[in-house]
Amino acid sequence: MASTSPARIWVMRAAFPALSLLVIFLHLLPLSTLPSRWAPPDVMMALVMAWAVRRPDFVPTLSIAFTFLMADLLFQRPPGLIALLVVLGASFLKSQVHPHRETAFLGEWVSVGIVIVAITLSNRLILAVLSVEQPSLGLILIQMVATLAVYPLIVLISESLLGVQKLSPAEAEALGSR
Amino acid sequence: MAKDRSQRDDYAAPLRRLLTGVVCLCLLALFLIWRIDSPRVERFRAQVIDAVVPSMDWAMIPVEGAINLFRDFQSYQRLAEQNRELRSELRQMSAWKEAALQLEQENARLLDLNNVRLDPRLTYVTGVVMADSGSPFRQSVILNVGARDGVRDGWAAMDGIGLVGRISGTGQNTSRVILLTDASSAVPAMIQPSGQSTLVAGDNSPAPVIDFLENPDLVRPGDRVVTSGDGQVFPAGLLIGQVTQDRFGRLRVRLSADYERLEFLRVLRHHGSEVIRDPGGLIVPAPGTGTIPRPRPEGLGADTGDGTEPAETEDG
């Protein structure tokens, strides 16, 4: 029952921007200024997908939009585009979720993978149509695959350490009736 | 209770969908505005960075220090080996030092002979690197000097030895340096000793490409690459690096600046070099000051030969 109390919900709602800020902070550390041959996974994207599947109420649309807009601005990406795509992707995942049904993890991984691939490709496509200068395709594909590979790890950490788990039917009922 | 809940959903779901739609429209509008009027949004971005990054600084310094400490600790394991290497390097260096001293004396003598005056307006302000771009697709760093220190867009940033990049985006207390390795960086340069002008273009690899070279046969690996000052981008003569050739035979620049560890950068104050616009403006004074050649005397046109100007009439 504790995971449906308003205090807990608000703490977790604050936790998402805080965790994202931590990720941004680690990326911004000036440890190496040499261009690298590989790209690290986009942890923020994996995080928001994992949470949107489990507890949509922890990641409201406004919070996602604000956090990813911040990341766009700080990482020198075209402002707003990734944020827009992630908001769309996350709301799609939220609408796909059947709150009372326990789905197999593999199925969830596949649907999240489709969303991430769609975000990556449409980002690339929109930038190409508007003829914005883009990084090499190889790096982007590496990042996409790395994000998909790191997704189970993010899910594991979210479930075990942060307690972001799907609600049982009774809890969902309690949450809904309040 | 179930009925209660379905009623709740009835108005909550469309409301939520509306909110998502509004948010998406706002983000789309921001992106389109950025595409249409990039400078304005980039200014906004600089302001956001200006507000956010300095406030992270208190945490960044200890974390970065701890990570570097850990890296150093790893290198202690190879201490004995390193020591031996350093000794042999030191022996080589002392020979070089002797050569350098001699060259320095010679250089000073030659400068004295030529009465060379280095550009006195080329002063600099030094900044500390606070953060990097945070993305593997972009190569830039953020310095802790900004408009407050008089830094302006387009100025050159160097480390102790070579050119590092170009200021692009200044906030009140921070400024962003686009590194030469960034894919959007292109710097007009000159290769010495052949004196050919070229463009040093970054491509997200450690060594930028030498582009638009007129005659590649005159260029050999090891030649020096310096800025040419073309297009008023940078002051001329800043060292960029040396020419190398990669596996595919493309000419690249091995940068002189130590990109492994960019810590302190010098931002050169550059107020534009003086341009000679009209040819001969230096030699002939402005028209109307009395030194214009006089018009031919009218008598010459008819060629009457009345003997007043013997030199002219003899020719005619």
TrEMBL record, chain B:
Superkingdom field: Bacteria
Transmembrane segments: 18-36
Gene3D superfamilies linked: Rod shape-determining protein MreC, domain 1, Rod shape-determining protein MreC, domain 2
Region (Disordered): 279-316
Residues in coiled coil: 79-113
UniProt keyword annotations, A-Z: Cell shape, Coiled coil, Membrane, Transmembrane, Transmembrane helix
GO terms for biological process, alphabetical: regulation of cell shape
Domain Rod shape-determining protein MreC beta-barrel core: 129-268
A GO cellular component annotation in the UniProt record: plasma membrane
Family: Belongs to the MreC family.
This protein's name: Cell shape-determining protein MreC
Annotated gene: mreC
